[in-house]
């Protein structure tokens, strides 16, 4: 078994929704699949669906509906007419960089006297600060226009006003209870702002200001809007969807040196760029400037008018991004150690793990702690705050990421007395506080989580848009789904549940085998599936495994060929899996390899002999906490909780293996680590050749070539011709006559002796004069041999058949448990 990482919630339509989808499909000439997805996403009216699919520039809202827009436009135009110095004040993330870039483009077109200022993340922190205002005053700046920041800068804007500087705020963050007294505040989230769309990014608000001043939407700058909107995870709905679609069109034919250079270093084919390329290729490199150095490098790139300068800036950002990745990896390792310590302390005190993850370390770069927090969310699914501590001042600056149901902004507001500064929204936030407040801060956040979150909130969920089979994973479906692009926050790419497929082939790919590639089969068709980061579970998947996958369809183009492929996001295998290593030359080496490649929880190594058990317990490669038992010890043990059975050495019998499987009600995987030579098949340990010759051991010595009734009859007829026969060497002489193995002859003679078909007298073997008619099954050796042959057939069956047998045994165990529960 492989358990899904998330709870799958499969969307479905009621009869009314099905009818609405049919109407949309007919009126808008859409594939029914696309119409169903539109209804599932809330677009069940023709006008709404048409606006979503085909919204054009004329559907943008009037920018003057934004509160404060009229005053802002008048003041900026006044500054232009009077030749006043204007300073753009931005933020250091990708949205802030994009907003600043767009405002630079606007002021260049207006031929204004202006410059820009972005604070240093580490030295100055987020938002307006008085030192920066002093610098503006010294430069004779008369007007500051903030972009993507300023909504919380109450005291700073009051200070600017006191030194003769007007401030226009353009922002999109959650407004605080007390707003700054700026000349104009433009933020659609103001409670009394009538603007119909509240989801604009900071760069979106800047775009609306440009639209208001120019009298028309500056479409040529929508590529900048697309970058900031996607990077800041704003919902791709309403205006954002229109602006991002237009921006992608601009990028596909871009002649801007900055974007062309950025695409080149990121390995992006501009004519085919998607929102995903921006999110994972462009945005991280833009963000890297502000995280590790200064965002000015990203501004220079996006505003460059010289090709060589743009390429140099792009290469510098790419280098910074690589450094950022290493810094993140280092902090993650340190943070994991701290978290493990917190959990161990809680366990010693008899307390549960903390409900909110709060991790702080000296010297941690405050520019990357948000990325670290996101990684912990993926791993633990708990609200996470990661802070860097300044060892000299004791100030902590950090970022937070949250889960559904836990509003970070609301939580930080509840803790405001412990904080020096905070801002953000439900899913992400930033804050600063003093070191001595950390413990109380962590406790309060945890209390809020326990109060606000219900048990189901702690389970990550994946909403699946559609359940389908391999026939549906086609180029035609991909083309249909592309009507819903661009994809991103608020309009994710459709997630599919791929059912009724089996694994035809599997392998790892990429550096250090981190990624998984499966070849899936169903109805005679094949489909490739790629799972980034899933490489480590390769050993837990076998050929023939029935598998369910959640993910997205994508187009794979290679050497002029186009085919569909499935991008895996979650995996589930509902049956017990066989990891088959029976063909390996060395069982012990196979075991070592498995232990090094896979992680085992509630696992037991089962061996046929006490000597093997004792040897393994001293093996350095076997984890100290892993149990090693013989089959006999297992019979008397409570084995209900084992999830993994590692069978080292051939099991003594199929019956013994079946008994163990049936006792393991929680069994998920069986690792068969044995071969034909890994354990003597049926001979009694220590029995000498002479003893076997004289006693015809009751244990059969063959399994693979078990004789049938016809062969027993042939041997009997031969004995009628040649008996009496000297006992000494009779096996070999008869084997030569019959052309059969000597051990097979020995076994058959042993059966005849038990049935009293033969007699031995004076060292001779003869047929009984008047034998009583008996069935072969009356012989204990024959019955034992049949069981051994059946065991051999099972234990060395073809992989798929052996796996099916294991599942049948486990199903018997499950049925037994369910029957017992029903009776009780």
TrEMBL record:
Residues 355-448 form the DHHA1 domain. Residues 464-570 form the RecJ OB domain. Pfam families: DHH (PF01368), DHHA1 (PF02272), RecJ_OB (PF17768), ssDNA-exonuc_C (PF10141). The keyword Hydrolase applies. Residues 703-806 form the Single-stranded-DNA-specific exonuclease RecJ C-terminal domain. It comes from the Bacteria. PANTHER family: SINGLE-STRANDED-DNA-SPECIFIC EXONUCLEASE RECJ (PTHR30255:SF2). Belongs to the RecJ family. This is Single-stranded-DNA-specific exonuclease RecJ. The gene is recJ.
């Amino acid at each position: 078994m492989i358990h899904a990482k998330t709870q799958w919630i499969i969307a479905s339509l009621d009869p009314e929704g099905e009818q609405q989808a049919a109407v949309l499909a007919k009126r808008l000439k859409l594939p029914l699949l696309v119409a169903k997805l539109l209804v599932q996403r809330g677009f069940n009216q023709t006008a709404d669906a048409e606006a979503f699919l085909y919204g054009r520039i004329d559907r943008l809202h009037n920018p003057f509906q934004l509160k404060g827009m009229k005053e802002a436009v008048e003041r900026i135009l006044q500054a232009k007419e009077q030749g006043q110095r204007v300073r753009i004040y931005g933020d250091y993330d990708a949205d802030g960089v994009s907003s600043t870039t767009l405002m630079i483009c606007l002021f260049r077109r207006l031929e204004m006297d202006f410059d820009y200022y972005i604070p240093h993340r580490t030295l100055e922190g987020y938002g307006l600060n008085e030192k920066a205002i002093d610098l503006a005053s010294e430069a004779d700046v008369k007007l500051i226009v903030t972009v993507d920041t300023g909504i919380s800068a109450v005291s700073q804007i009051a200070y600017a006003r006191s030194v003769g500087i007007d401030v226009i705020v353009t922002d999109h963050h959650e407004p605080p209870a007390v707003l700054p007294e700026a000349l104009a505040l433009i933020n659609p989230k103001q409670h009394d702002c009538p603007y119909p769309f509240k989801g604009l990014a900071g760069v979106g608000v800047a775009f609306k200001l440009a639209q208001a001043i120019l009298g028309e939407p500056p479409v040529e700058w929508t590529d900048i809007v697309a970058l900031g909107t996607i990077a800041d995870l704003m919902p791709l709905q309403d205006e954002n969807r229109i602006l991002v679609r237009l921006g992608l069109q601009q990028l596909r034919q871009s002649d801007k040196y900055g974007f062309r250079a950025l695409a080149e270093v990121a390995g992006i084919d501009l004519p085919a760029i998607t929102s995903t390329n921006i999110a994972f290729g462009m945005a991280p490199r833009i963000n890297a400037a502000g995280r590790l150095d200064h965002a000015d490098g990203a501004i220079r790139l996006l505003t460059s008018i010289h090709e060589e300068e743009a390429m140099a800036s792009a290469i510098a950002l790419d280098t910074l991004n690589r450094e950022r990745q290493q810094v993140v990896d280092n902090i993650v390792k340190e943070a994991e150690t701290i978290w493990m310590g917190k959990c161990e302390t809680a366990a010693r005190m008899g307390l549960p793990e903390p409900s909110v993850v709060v991790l702080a370390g000296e010297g941690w770069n405050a520019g990357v702690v948000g990325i670290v927090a996101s990684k912990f969310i993926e791993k633990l699914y708990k609200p996470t705050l990661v802070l860097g501590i300044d060892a000299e001042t004791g100030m902590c600056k950090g970022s937070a990421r949250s889960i559904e149901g836990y509003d970070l902004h609301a939580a930080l507001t509840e803790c405001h007395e412990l904080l020096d500064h905070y801002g953000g929204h439900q899913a992400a936030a930033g804050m600063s506080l003093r070191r001595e407040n950390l413990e109380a801060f962590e406790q309060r956040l945890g209390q809020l989580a326990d109060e606000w979150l219900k048990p189901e909130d702690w389970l990550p969920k994946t909403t699946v848009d559609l359940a389908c089979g391999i026939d549906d994973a086609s180029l035609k479906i991909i083309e249909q789904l592309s009507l819903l692009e661009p994809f991103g926050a608020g309009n994710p790419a459709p997630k599919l549940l791929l059912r009724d497929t089996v694994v035809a082939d599997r392998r790892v790919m990429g550096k250090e085998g981190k990624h998984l590639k499966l070849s899936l089969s169903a109805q005679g068709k094949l489909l490739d599936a790629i799972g980034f980061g899933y490489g480590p579970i390769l050993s837990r998947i076998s050929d023939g495994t029935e598998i369910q996958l959640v993910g997205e369809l994508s187009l794979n183009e290679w050497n002029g060929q186009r085919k569909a492929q499935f991008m895996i996001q979650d995996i589930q295998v509902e049956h017990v899996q066989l990891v088959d290593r029976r063909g390996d030359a060395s069982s012990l080496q196979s075991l070592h390899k498995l232990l090094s490649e896979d992680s085992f929880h509630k696992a037991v190594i089962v061996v046929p002999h006490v000597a093997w058990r004792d040897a393994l317990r001293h093996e350095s490669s076997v984890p100290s906490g892993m149990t090693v038992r013989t089959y006999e010890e297992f019979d008397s043990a409570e084995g209900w909780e084992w999830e993994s059975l590692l069978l080292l050495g051939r099991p003594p019998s199929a019956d013994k293996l079946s008994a163990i499987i049936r006792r393991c009600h929680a069994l998920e995987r069986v690792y068969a680590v044995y071969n034909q030579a890994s354990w003597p098949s049926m001979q009694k340990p220590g029995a000498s050749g002479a003893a076997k010759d004289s006693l015809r051991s009751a244990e059969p010595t063959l399994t693979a070539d078990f004789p049938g009734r016809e062969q027993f009859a042939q041997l009997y007829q031969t004995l009628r011709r040649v008996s009496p026969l000297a006992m000494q060497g009779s096996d070999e002489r008869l084997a030569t006559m019959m052309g059969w193995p000597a051990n097979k002859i020995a076994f058959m003679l042993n059966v005849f002796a038990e049935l009293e078909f033969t007699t031995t007298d004076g060292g001779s073997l003869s047929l009984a004069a008047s034998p009583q008619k008996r069935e072969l099954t009356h012989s204990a050796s024959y019955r034992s041999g049949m069981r051994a042959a059946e065991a051999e057939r099972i234990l060395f069956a073809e992989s798929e058949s052996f796996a099916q047998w294991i599942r049948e045994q486990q199903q018997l165990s499950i049925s037994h448990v369910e029957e017992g529960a029903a009776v009780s």
